[in-house]
Amino acid sequence: MIGFRVNPARTFVALALGGPVLAGLALTLAPAFGYLPAIGGGRFNLAPWRELLAEPGFAATLRLTLVVGFAATLLSLGLAFGLLAASGARAKGRGFAFLLAPLLATPHAAMAIGLAFLIAPSGWIFRLSSPWATGFLAPPDFATVNDAAGLALILGLVLKETPFLLIVAIGALETIGADDHFRVARSLGEPRIAAWLKVVAPQLYTRMRLPIYATLAYSLSTVDMGIVLGPSHPLSLSLLSLRWFAAPDLDKIFPGAAAATLQLVVAVAAVGCWRGGEALVSTFGVSALQRGRRGGAVNALGAVLAGLGGVALALGLAALAALAVWSFAWRWTFPNAWPETWTSDNWRRGAIALTTPLGDTLLLAAASASAALVVAVAWLESDDRRGRPPPSRWIYLPLLLPQISFLFGAQSLLAWTRLDGSLTAVAWAHTLFVFPYTMLSLERSWRALDPRYARAAASLGASKGRILFRVKLPIQFRALAIALAIGVSVSFAQYLSTLFAGGGRVTTLTTEAIARASGGDRRFVAVAAFLQAAIPVLVYLWALLAPMGPRPAQR
Amino acid sequence: MKLWICALSLSLAASGAAGGARADAAWDTVLAKARGQTVYWNAWGGDERTNNFIAWAGDEMSKRYGVVVKQVKLADTGEAVARVLAEKSAGRNSDGTVDMIWINGPNFLSMKEKGLLFGPFADKLPNFAYVDTANKPSNVIDFTIPVEGMESPWRLAQFVLIENSAGVATSPRTLHDLAAWIHAHPGRFTHPDAKDFMGATFLKQALIDLAPNRERLAKPATDADFAAETAPLWAWYDSVRASFWRKGEQFPADGPTLMRLLNDGEVDFALSFDPAEAAAGVEAGRLPATVRVHTLDGGSLGNTSFVAIPYNSPHREGAMALANFLLDPATQAHAQDVRILGSYTVLDPAKLSPEQRKAFIDLPSNPALPTSADLGAVLLEPHPSWMTALAQEWRRRYAH
After folding, report:
1. What is the rounded CA–CA span in Å between residue B153 and residue B194?
2. Is residue B304 a contact partner of residue B142, using CB atoms and an 8 Å limit?
3. Chain B contact for A351 (CB, 8 A cutoff)
4. Strand B100-103 to B38-44 pairing
5. Rounded Cα–Cα distance for residues B24 and B47 (Å)
6. CB-based contact (8 Å) between A54 and chain B?
7. pLDDT at residue A371 above 80?
């Protein structure tokens, strides 16, 4: 097997996951330049771009997209670093992991819906504070969600991305061993938070580039959070593209494809700018550090960020609580702090209406998370057998590509192979996004495994397969469980990929919740969103509580 | 398969002339083919009661004809149109994924023009004989476009205002009165974004009231006509917009979102195409008990909801059986029940037997439900191009 040049895991990933992404990009690019023979686009031309640029409010769309993307990423990173700087060693504790678990595992859509329940003019915060504090007898007439500046959308993204960057940072902390540097900085008289930010944060940052870029790309192109929290005027670029793709006037596919392609360009350019920003910060940062001023201001900034980070985590948990309360409300009139009438009827109606979506959601999550896990293990194991070549970066490409930029093309491909609208197609589309996260989660722990275990087993005559199944996998049990749980939560969160690959025929909790998020019966939406959040959270908690796995010596 | 369909359409066409027995035989063949098929009905999923009605229809279809019905819930009917097109572009001409679409107006025009529909089939349905084609003209002329059997009617819609009587002392009956109320109560009125059909409908309703030459609206909108006919509308709109909810700078995404704003107490008005929606909303705890329904003097827009079958549906017999079931007098009476849908029938009572008529007469009445007299005259939809142009012009003027 080793002698054979073709590596099955890599070949599978390249053909089944990489190929369709590239084909999807190409099949989106062609109509962006006017080529889609089926609707009379027989010649390449620039008309789609002219239409996109002439769209009223195009400049505002672009501005909104950029502001939301950069603001959400910068804030999330700042809050995550602030929280870590202020919490010190406690961040590594298990309690912190349990606090983050619900925020991490809750899909973006459910978080967005919960946040809207919380901060809307008729939301829980105003209900709790009216009329005694605010004087409002009716909900105030100003936009706290769907605001034109995109502030609610930025907040929603921050609630999800801060915990994500936090958990990534906590994992990366273990690999840099910055404790000594930190202690030296402290001994030189730096306050604790400033010492952490000046000494630990820069080292940590270099290990977190990929997740940060993924956060940036996601924030620039989010669709599900944008639908729930973003403005309808201007629309963000991805929503403008989606609206055109779904327009009754079929010719709108051309500008839709142009917008999708522009979304890709924007994401790539934004990551480029971010890298440029890194260089600037490091130049100025080093010279500031060399001047050696003890950082009172840095310390204060860090403390503020940590405080805001705490608020963000609390808001995230409160959003989940708002989902729970609404799911049991019958009538809940403004400005009452709590529902006037409670009922379990919403759950009874939900159970009927959501049977199929729930079943399909579970099926898709099980299929994509386990498929991704098997492929990831096969990949890492074959790397082990080839002497651990450097990690392949290209498998993380789906995390950096805006989904809208290739899903329309992928849908054309699926339609051509007659697979669209099937559960298989959706499971494949989910795996596309689940696999990179599974690898991201598993890779570090897998590579950290002391190779002497395997060598010892081999010297006792164990075959490679036996070493894998009897030594490596048992030791990695919790890491595998966590990777699986992350896969489940990524699959639960899929919206756009379900929409395109499923051709509307496959409904999941996410598509149901989003479809009704704005106009639907809030009590029903609460049931769908709560389920959508609760199941991945439970799976994730199970993984956190899973045993580390028996030591091979016990056998 | 294809050959058989040709034979079927031929025999159906022939039966029109030859009458009874052969039509029955042809229809029996349709039902035989339909048995065992799964019909994916692509229907806007924003209304819980409609979704429940579709689920009920599916149960009945499965019991009676062995046809499984699955609703594909759309946020916008355009999604289904786009899907059929994507399939055509992929050369998928005989096994598409959309079997039936709840459709009318611009979406129908788009599919008809681009050759994406199967048919004519509607006039071949046995129950089509009961359809009112004389006094309910929207059953055969959809937004001024001749239907020509390419879609089959199933429910009537009429534009109504829903108001919270706790905040509205006297119902405004004209646009002038409405403007006065809006000025007196800033921030308490709005309409859905014009890209949504309910938002566009509000603009159309106002246009019909204010247009200098209403008859021009029945023809495709030219630039000159559009400018002349819409000038009074924009003047009226500009006079009130600043007093809208959010100062007229933001708009709810669609009708259901506006309904939720009404329930939350953010506004005092909502708009609907379903005169029974308010009564049902109160019943379900989704609207305050103080809501009332009315229309503007001079009549309000009405149209017919249709079902159409894409040209590449592999389950067109199942879809035809379903379209026919929707026209069954008993089904129509069930749909008109305010506890179910409350949507008015597309059938002509004069064409029904006494027993069939009785099912309609026996329906429960409801004080929250407007009578036909309350609703007033039904105004026909303008040509679809007006809706598209209105939405575009509205966006150009107000949405950036």
Report:
1. 25
2. yes
3. no
4. parallel
5. 36
6. no
7. yes
Q: How many residues does chain A have?
A: 555
Q: Report the candidate in B325, B333, B335, B340 with the shortest Cα–Cα distance to residue B359.
A: B333
For B68-129, where are the E strands, in sequence order? 68-74, 100-103
Task: Count how many pairs of residues, chain A against chain B, have C-beta atoms within 8 Å.
Answer: 149
| Cβ separation B79–A331 shorter than 8 A | no
Please report the ipTM that was assigned to this predicted complex. Answer: 0.79
pLDDT of residue A430: 95
Cβ-based neighbour number of residue A387 at 10 Å: 7
Task: Tell me if B76 sits within 8 A of B59, measured CB to CB.
Answer: no
pLDDT at A39: 74
- In the predicted model, is pLDDT for residue A249 greater than 90? no
The more confidently predicted of residues A417 and A374 is A374
Nearest-CB residue to B286 (from A121, A518, A521): A521
Q: Which of A232, A244, A236, A233 is nearest to A220 (CA)?
A: A236
pLDDT tens by residue, B225-270:
999 999 999 999 999 999 999 999 889 988 989 999 999 999 999 9
- Do B322 and B67 meet the contact criterion of CB atoms below 8 Å apart? yes
Q: Is A353 on the interface with B (CB under 8 A)?
A: yes
pLDDT at A3 over 70: no
Token pair recorded at residue A184 = 């030296």
DSSP letter for each residue of B138-167: GGTEETTEE-TTSSEEEEEEE-EEEEETTT
Tell me which H or E stretch contains B291: strand B291-294
Q: Would the CB atoms of B97 and A232 count as touching at under 8 Å?
A: no
Share of chain B above pLDDT 70, in %: 93
- Band of residue B2 on the pLDDT scale cut at 50, 70, 90: very low
Interface test with B, best of A61, A127, A141, A354 (most B CBs within 10 A): A141
Determine the Cα–Cα distance for residues B73 and B155; give it in Å rounded to an integer. Answer: 18
Digit-coded pLDDT (tens) for A42-73: 889 999 999 999 998 899 999 999 999 999 99
Residue A75: CA atoms inside 13 Å, Cβ hemisphere, count? 23
Residue of B nearest to A334 (CA): B264
What distance in Å separates residue B359's CA from the closest CA in chain A?
28
The whole-angstrom separation of Cα B6 and Cα B172 is 55
Asked if the C-beta of A208 comes within 8 angstroms of chain B's C-beta atoms, the answer is no
CA geometry: angle at B247 spanning B242 and B251, to 5°?
115
Res B56: pLDDT: 95
Tokens 């049931």 map to which residue?
A527
Question: Within 13 Å, how many C-alpha atoms sit on residue B233's CB side?
Answer: 25
Torsion-angle region of B247 (φ positive above 0: left; ψ -120 to 50: alpha; else: beta): left
A196 DSSP 8-state letter: I
Q: Which A residues 138-177 touch B at CB under 8 Å?
A: 138-139, 141-143, 146-148
Q: State how far the Cα of A346 lies from the Cα of A350, in Å rounded to an integer.
A: 6
Asked if residue A212 has pLDDT above 50, the reply is yes
Cα distance between residue A373 and residue A446, in whole Å: 12
Cβ separation B86–A515 shorter than 8 A: no
pLDDT per position as a tens digit, B13-44: 444 444 556 778 899 999 999 999 999 999 98
Residue A57 touches partner B, C-beta closer than 8 Å: yes
**Nearest-angstrom CA–CA distance, B26 and B18:** 12
CB A319 within 8 Å of CB A117: yes
Q: Are A357 and A511 in contact (CB under 8 A)?
A: yes
Q: Report the alpha-carbon distance of residue A329 to residue A311 in Å, rounded.
A: 26
The per-residue pLDDT of chain B, averaged, comes to: 89
- Residue B219: what pLDDT? 93
